[in-house]
Amino acid sequence: MDIRPILFSLRRHKLTCCLLVLQIAFTCAIVCNTIFLIGQRLHRMNMPSGVAEQELVYVQMAYIGDRKDADARAADDLAALQSIPGVKSAALISELPFDYGSNNMDVRTDPTQRMATLSATQYFGENAVQTLGAQLVEGRQLRPEEYMDLSQVFTLLASQQFDKLPKATLITRAMADRLWPGKDPLGKQFYVGQGLPFTVVGVLANLVRPGNDRLNFGAQYSTVWPVRISLTEGASFLIRCAPQDRDRVLRRAVDKLKALDPNRIVLDKGTMEQHRRDFFKNDRAMAGILVGVCMALLIVTALGIVGLASFWVSQRNRSIGVRRALGATRRNILHYFQTENFLLTTMGVVLGMVLAYGINLFLIVHYELPRMPVAYFPVGAILLWCLGQAAVLGPALRAAAVPPVVATRSV
Known about the structure:
By secondary structure, the chain is of the alpha+beta class. The chain has helices at residues 4-11, 14-45, 70-82, 128-132, 150-158, 173-179, 246-260, 272-279, 281-315, 317-325, 330-367, 376-400, 404-409; strands at residues 56-63, 87-93, 104-108, 118-123, 136-139, 148-149, 168-172, 189-192, 196-204, 222-224, 227-228, 236-241, 264-271. The mean pLDDT is 89. It has two domains: 4-46 and 282-409, no CATH class; 53-279, no CATH class. The strands form three sheets. Strands 3-4-10-7-9-8 form a six-stranded mixed barrel. It has a four-stranded antiparallel β-sheet with strand order 2-12-1-13.
């Protein structure tokens, strides 16, 4: 179709066309960034944890009074939990995946480094890896003789007897690839704190970090240390069992723990799946809000296109009738309005992509968001093109249905 008549017609309505193009441009810019932000939220919510989520339940407790025998009581608690029918494994662990807080450390591959290579989370707790269900892909598990009580670790740190601290550790594959790209990490050392060396003896496929703020900065940078913890605030009992046994095992676990020591209260309990859902509830809410904003913008833009197209149809009855009288078919009239809308939408999309890039740069600078991939630009363009064609279809069909006789009589 020759677009010169269309361009000539649009020049006669410059202000109206510019307003519609600007509306499409702003919608395109906001929609591209909104879809990107929704994708970021969905990626966070669906990130792999590296643990057997469907098999895990947990109990977090608060303790009353001084607990000088905390280590012995922790051993009794774990033995009681292990005796529950259906329990595969139980551990007292310092961190839970998808907790809001976490213990972290700066990691260096050379003790003389001024800047840390990365920050990683420390998981403490005997039998933690087996209970979590994290998959070991290289090396070996931590051995029982390598474990040390956390109280002993604090004592050695206070007396600066660093050579007596545990040396073996497990790290994740993502952390190994960052520290030693393309190299075998087994047997290699990294350094934390005041140059304390730790040797990698095993590599886990994946183990997500706790801490909402940590998921944006190396979500899989986790380590497991051979440190045995006691009944302290923040520690959690983690129990692994068959998925169908979780509710029963959780009730029995709470009853046993209360029976062993009535001087403590349950702060939180549940399944790991529910723990994950609770952790990402704000992300789900934000994704819902962004979807609502996106839909509202698209609806407003569609209404603008429909209104303008309807106005133009009513103003062009004479020209439509003349074209029909000269032999133009309904399909020709329909294609005319669709092409006109496509040209306006394309102008808006081109301008919108420039605005989308500018908005993304603003978000990068002020909110530390990642750069929007180029793939989101054609997604926004296609969405606006489809919206424009759908919105103009009704008025275009009405224009195509105008009989030549009625149109010419309206002169």
